[in-house]
Automatic annotation (TrEMBL):
Claim: Transmembrane is one of the keywords in the record: yes
Record's keyword annotation contains Aminoacyl-tRNA synthetase: no
Domain of life according to the entry: Eukaryota
Database matches in PANTHER family: TRANSMEMBRANE PROTEIN 135, TRANSMEMBRANE PROTEIN 135-RELATED
Annotated source species: Clastoptera arizonana
Protein name: Transmembrane protein 135 N-terminal domain-containing protein
Lineage, highest ranks first: Eukaryota, Metazoa, Ecdysozoa, Arthropoda, Hexapoda
Protein backbone atom coordinates (compact mmCIF):
# COMPACT_ATOMS: atom_id res chain seq x y z
CA UNK A 1 0.00 0.00 0.00
CA UNK A 2 2.80 2.41 0.87
CA UNK A 3 4.74 1.47 -2.28
CA UNK A 4 1.65 2.01 -4.45
CA UNK A 5 1.32 5.52 -2.99
CA UNK A 6 5.04 6.18 -3.62
CA UNK A 7 5.62 6.80 0.07
CA UNK A 8 8.49 4.32 0.09
CA UNK A 9 10.61 2.67 -2.55
CA UNK A 10 11.08 -1.11 -2.66
CA UNK A 11 14.60 -2.31 -1.91
CA UNK A 12 16.05 -4.91 -4.22
CA UNK A 13 16.62 -8.17 -2.35
CA UNK A 14 15.10 -6.52 0.71
CA UNK A 15 13.60 -9.81 1.86
CA UNK A 16 17.10 -11.32 1.99
CA UNK A 17 18.34 -8.42 4.12
CA UNK A 18 15.39 -8.79 6.49
CA UNK A 19 15.95 -12.53 6.77
CA UNK A 20 19.70 -12.19 7.40
CA UNK A 21 19.26 -9.62 10.17
CA UNK A 22 16.37 -11.47 11.80
CA UNK A 23 17.95 -14.91 11.74
CA UNK A 24 21.21 -13.47 13.11
CA UNK A 25 19.36 -12.12 16.13
CA UNK A 26 17.48 -15.38 16.63
CA UNK A 27 20.66 -17.45 16.39
CA UNK A 28 22.38 -15.13 18.86
CA UNK A 29 19.55 -15.80 21.30
CA UNK A 30 19.67 -19.51 20.46
CA UNK A 31 23.35 -19.61 21.43
CA UNK A 32 22.47 -18.08 24.79
CA UNK A 33 19.76 -18.61 27.37
CA UNK A 34 16.44 -18.85 25.58
CA UNK A 35 12.84 -19.89 26.06
CA UNK A 36 11.07 -22.93 24.64
CA UNK A 37 9.66 -21.05 21.66
CA UNK A 38 8.94 -23.20 18.61
CA UNK A 39 11.35 -21.16 16.48
CA UNK A 40 14.26 -22.56 18.47
CA UNK A 41 13.22 -26.10 17.59
CA UNK A 42 13.48 -25.13 13.93
CA UNK A 43 16.91 -23.57 14.48
CA UNK A 44 18.03 -26.66 16.39
CA UNK A 45 17.02 -28.79 13.43
CA UNK A 46 18.91 -26.59 10.93
CA UNK A 47 22.13 -25.67 12.75
CA UNK A 48 22.22 -28.62 15.13
CA UNK A 49 22.17 -29.01 18.93
CA UNK A 50 25.97 -28.60 19.15
CA UNK A 51 25.60 -24.84 18.75
CA UNK A 52 23.14 -24.55 21.62
CA UNK A 53 24.25 -23.32 25.02
CA UNK A 54 24.83 -26.09 27.53
CA UNK A 55 25.53 -28.78 24.95
CA UNK A 56 27.78 -31.48 26.34
CA UNK A 57 30.35 -32.91 23.97
CA UNK A 58 29.68 -36.62 23.53
CA UNK A 59 32.49 -39.18 23.76
CA UNK A 60 33.86 -40.12 20.36
CA UNK A 61 33.18 -43.65 19.18
CA UNK A 62 36.13 -45.80 18.22
CA UNK A 63 36.72 -46.19 14.50
CA UNK A 64 36.26 -49.69 13.12
CA UNK A 65 38.57 -50.32 10.20
CA UNK A 66 36.72 -51.07 6.99
CA UNK A 67 37.64 -51.92 3.42
CA UNK A 68 34.67 -50.00 2.07
CA UNK A 69 35.79 -46.99 0.00
CA UNK A 70 33.00 -44.76 1.31
CA UNK A 71 33.91 -45.55 4.92
CA UNK A 72 37.57 -44.80 4.24
CA UNK A 73 36.77 -41.43 2.67
CA UNK A 74 34.37 -40.62 5.49
CA UNK A 75 36.99 -41.49 8.11
CA UNK A 76 39.62 -39.44 6.29
CA UNK A 77 37.37 -36.37 6.43
CA UNK A 78 36.50 -37.02 10.06
CA UNK A 79 40.12 -37.03 11.24
CA UNK A 80 40.98 -33.67 9.70
CA UNK A 81 41.86 -30.79 12.00
CA UNK A 82 39.45 -29.18 14.41
CA UNK A 83 39.59 -26.53 17.12
CA UNK A 84 39.65 -27.25 20.83
CA UNK A 85 36.87 -24.69 21.29
CA UNK A 86 34.56 -26.45 18.81
CA UNK A 87 31.70 -28.40 20.45
CA UNK A 88 31.62 -31.20 17.86
CA UNK A 89 33.56 -34.45 17.87
CA UNK A 90 34.90 -34.81 14.35
CA UNK A 91 36.69 -32.35 12.08
CA UNK A 92 35.16 -29.00 11.17
CA UNK A 93 35.07 -30.08 7.53
CA UNK A 94 33.04 -33.19 8.34
CA UNK A 95 30.84 -31.24 10.76
CA UNK A 96 29.92 -28.71 8.06
CA UNK A 97 29.64 -31.08 5.10
CA UNK A 98 27.47 -33.62 6.89
CA UNK A 99 24.93 -31.02 7.96
CA UNK A 100 24.85 -29.35 4.56
CA UNK A 101 24.33 -32.58 2.64
CA UNK A 102 21.73 -33.85 5.09
CA UNK A 103 19.67 -30.65 4.93
CA UNK A 104 20.00 -30.47 1.16
CA UNK A 105 18.59 -33.99 0.86
CA UNK A 106 15.71 -33.16 3.21
CA UNK A 107 14.84 -29.93 1.43
CA UNK A 108 15.09 -31.49 -2.01
CA UNK A 109 13.00 -34.48 -0.96
CA UNK A 110 10.27 -32.34 0.59
CA UNK A 111 10.06 -30.06 -2.42
CA UNK A 112 10.01 -32.97 -4.86
CA UNK A 113 7.31 -34.84 -2.94
CA UNK A 114 5.15 -31.73 -2.77
CA UNK A 115 5.46 -31.12 -6.51
CA UNK A 116 4.67 -34.75 -7.30
CA UNK A 117 1.60 -34.72 -5.05
CA UNK A 118 0.28 -31.57 -6.72
CA UNK A 119 0.81 -33.10 -10.16
CA UNK A 120 -0.54 -36.55 -9.27
CA UNK A 121 -3.28 -36.56 -11.92
CA UNK A 122 -0.91 -35.60 -14.72
CA UNK A 123 1.69 -38.11 -13.55
CA UNK A 124 -0.91 -40.89 -13.64
CA UNK A 125 -1.21 -40.35 -17.40
CA UNK A 126 2.43 -39.41 -18.02
CA UNK A 127 4.77 -41.14 -15.52
CA UNK A 128 7.80 -39.63 -17.27
CA UNK A 129 6.89 -36.30 -15.64
CA UNK A 130 8.48 -37.65 -12.45
CA UNK A 131 11.93 -37.42 -14.01
CA UNK A 132 11.31 -33.95 -15.41
CA UNK A 133 10.34 -32.72 -11.93
CA UNK A 134 13.37 -34.39 -10.38
CA UNK A 135 15.83 -32.33 -12.41
CA UNK A 136 14.06 -28.98 -12.60
CA UNK A 137 15.90 -26.04 -11.06
CA UNK A 138 12.86 -25.13 -8.93
CA UNK A 139 12.99 -28.52 -7.24
CA UNK A 140 16.51 -27.86 -5.96
CA UNK A 141 15.77 -24.44 -4.46
CA UNK A 142 14.54 -25.52 -1.03
CA UNK A 143 17.37 -28.03 -0.69
CA UNK A 144 19.93 -25.40 -1.70
CA UNK A 145 18.51 -23.03 0.91
CA UNK A 146 18.46 -25.60 3.72
CA UNK A 147 21.83 -27.12 2.88
CA UNK A 148 23.52 -23.80 2.20
CA UNK A 149 22.26 -22.27 5.42
CA UNK A 150 23.30 -25.17 7.64
CA UNK A 151 26.70 -25.57 5.98
CA UNK A 152 27.58 -21.86 5.88
CA UNK A 153 26.59 -21.31 9.49
CA UNK A 154 28.84 -24.11 10.68
CA UNK A 155 31.73 -23.09 8.42
CA UNK A 156 31.70 -19.49 9.67
CA UNK A 157 31.20 -20.55 13.30
CA UNK A 158 34.13 -22.99 13.17
CA UNK A 159 36.31 -20.41 11.43
CA UNK A 160 35.59 -17.81 14.11
CA UNK A 161 36.33 -20.34 16.85
CA UNK A 162 39.65 -21.17 15.21
CA UNK A 163 40.63 -17.51 14.85
CA UNK A 164 39.56 -16.43 18.34
CA UNK A 165 40.47 -19.74 20.05
CA UNK A 166 37.23 -19.51 21.99
CA UNK A 167 33.52 -20.12 21.56
CA UNK A 168 31.28 -17.09 21.88
CA UNK A 169 27.60 -16.37 21.59
CA UNK A 170 28.47 -13.36 19.41
CA UNK A 171 29.80 -15.68 16.71
CA UNK A 172 26.19 -16.43 15.83
CA UNK A 173 25.65 -12.91 14.47
CA UNK A 174 28.16 -12.94 11.57
CA UNK A 175 27.60 -16.67 11.03
CA UNK A 176 23.84 -16.15 10.80
CA UNK A 177 24.24 -13.17 8.47
CA UNK A 178 26.45 -15.13 6.07
CA UNK A 179 24.25 -18.23 6.25
CA UNK A 180 21.19 -16.09 5.60
CA UNK A 181 22.51 -15.28 2.12
CA UNK A 182 21.41 -18.78 1.12
CA UNK A 183 17.87 -17.39 1.30
CA UNK A 184 18.58 -16.16 -2.22
CA UNK A 185 17.76 -19.66 -3.46
CA UNK A 186 14.31 -19.65 -1.86
CA UNK A 187 13.25 -16.02 -1.61
CA UNK A 188 9.88 -15.62 0.05
CA UNK A 189 8.46 -12.49 1.65
CA UNK A 190 6.24 -14.46 4.02
CA UNK A 191 9.16 -16.44 5.44
CA UNK A 192 11.31 -13.31 5.82
CA UNK A 193 8.54 -11.41 7.60
CA UNK A 194 7.79 -14.38 9.85
CA UNK A 195 11.40 -14.46 11.06
CA UNK A 196 11.43 -10.68 11.47
CA UNK A 197 8.29 -10.55 13.59
CA UNK A 198 9.41 -13.60 15.56
CA UNK A 199 12.72 -11.90 16.37
CA UNK A 200 10.97 -8.68 17.40
CA UNK A 201 8.48 -10.60 19.53
CA UNK A 202 11.18 -12.51 21.42
CA UNK A 203 13.42 -9.46 21.86
CA UNK A 204 10.51 -7.38 23.15
CA UNK A 205 9.50 -10.18 25.50
CA UNK A 206 13.01 -10.39 26.92
CA UNK A 207 13.11 -6.63 27.34
CA UNK A 208 9.77 -6.66 29.15
CA UNK A 209 10.96 -9.44 31.48
CA UNK A 210 13.98 -7.33 32.45
CA UNK A 211 11.72 -4.27 32.87
CA UNK A 212 13.59 -2.45 30.13
CA UNK A 213 10.40 -2.22 28.05
CA UNK A 214 6.79 -1.73 29.18
CA UNK A 215 4.50 -4.72 29.49
CA UNK A 216 1.74 -4.88 26.88
CA UNK A 217 -1.06 -7.10 28.21
CA UNK A 218 -3.08 -8.98 25.58
CA UNK A 219 -0.77 -7.70 22.85
CA UNK A 220 -1.47 -10.73 20.64
CA UNK A 221 -5.19 -9.94 20.62
CA UNK A 222 -4.57 -6.28 19.84
CA UNK A 223 -2.19 -6.96 16.95
CA UNK A 224 -4.48 -9.63 15.52
CA UNK A 225 -7.41 -7.21 15.59
CA UNK A 226 -5.29 -4.42 14.11
CA UNK A 227 -3.97 -6.64 11.29
CA UNK A 228 -7.48 -7.89 10.51
CA UNK A 229 -8.76 -4.31 10.36
CA UNK A 230 -6.00 -3.28 7.94
CA UNK A 231 -6.66 -6.29 5.70
CA UNK A 232 -10.40 -5.69 5.49
CA UNK A 233 -9.87 -1.96 5.00
CA UNK A 234 -7.61 -2.72 2.04
CA UNK A 235 -10.01 -5.38 0.76
CA UNK A 236 -12.81 -2.82 0.67
CA UNK A 237 -11.04 0.31 -0.57
CA UNK A 238 -8.05 -0.95 -2.55
CA UNK A 239 -8.20 -4.74 -3.00
CA UNK A 240 -5.62 -4.65 -5.81
CA UNK A 241 -2.96 -3.95 -3.16
CA UNK A 242 -3.66 -7.25 -1.42
CA UNK A 243 -1.76 -10.37 -2.28
CA UNK A 244 -3.85 -12.70 -4.45
CA UNK A 245 -3.67 -15.35 -1.72
CA UNK A 246 -4.98 -12.86 0.89
CA UNK A 247 -7.74 -11.73 -1.44
CA UNK A 248 -8.82 -15.32 -2.08
CA UNK A 249 -8.79 -16.01 1.66
CA UNK A 250 -10.91 -12.97 2.53
CA UNK A 251 -13.28 -13.77 -0.31
CA UNK A 252 -13.71 -17.30 1.01
CA UNK A 253 -14.08 -16.23 4.66
CA UNK A 254 -16.73 -13.63 3.82
CA UNK A 255 -18.63 -16.00 1.55
CA UNK A 256 -17.78 -13.76 -1.46
CA UNK A 257 -19.62 -10.86 0.23
CA UNK A 258 -16.44 -8.77 0.15
CA UNK A 259 -16.57 -9.02 -3.65
CA UNK A 260 -20.23 -8.09 -4.06
CA UNK A 261 -20.15 -5.03 -1.82
CA UNK A 262 -21.09 -1.93 -3.82
CA UNK A 263 -18.00 0.27 -4.05
CA UNK A 264 -19.48 2.89 -6.37
CA UNK A 265 -20.46 5.04 -3.40
CA UNK A 266 -16.78 5.19 -2.44
CA UNK A 267 -15.62 6.30 -5.87
CA UNK A 268 -16.87 9.85 -5.24
CA UNK A 269 -14.05 10.23 -2.71
CA UNK A 270 -11.48 9.58 -5.42
CA UNK A 271 -10.33 6.19 -4.13
CA UNK A 272 -11.43 4.36 -7.33
CA UNK A 273 -12.43 1.27 -5.37
CA UNK A 274 -14.52 -0.12 -8.23
CA UNK A 275 -11.52 -0.04 -10.55
CA UNK A 276 -9.37 -1.55 -7.83
CA UNK A 277 -11.84 -4.43 -7.47
CA UNK A 278 -11.60 -5.21 -11.18
CA UNK A 279 -7.80 -5.26 -10.92
CA UNK A 280 -7.95 -7.60 -7.92
CA UNK A 281 -10.32 -9.95 -9.70
CA UNK A 282 -8.09 -10.04 -12.77
CA UNK A 283 -5.11 -10.99 -10.57
CA UNK A 284 -7.15 -13.77 -9.04
CA UNK A 285 -7.76 -15.36 -12.41
Amino acid sequence: MAVWRDWIKPIKYGEIMIFCISVSMLLYLYRGTHTNDSIYSLLRFIVGPCEEQGYQKKPQTQYVKSTDLFSKVKHYIQIQSTSASCPHNHSCLFYSMRNGLKLFAIGYGLNLCLKLLLQMKKIAYRPTLIFSHMFRMETFRLGAFFGGFGCLFRVVSCTLRRVSCTDSQFHAIPAGAVAGLSFFFYRDNTVALYFMWKALQIIYGLGAEKEMLPQFPHANIFFHAFATAVLFHAALLEPHNLRPSYWRFLTSVSGTKIVHMDRRCLDVFGVESSKSLQMAQSKRH
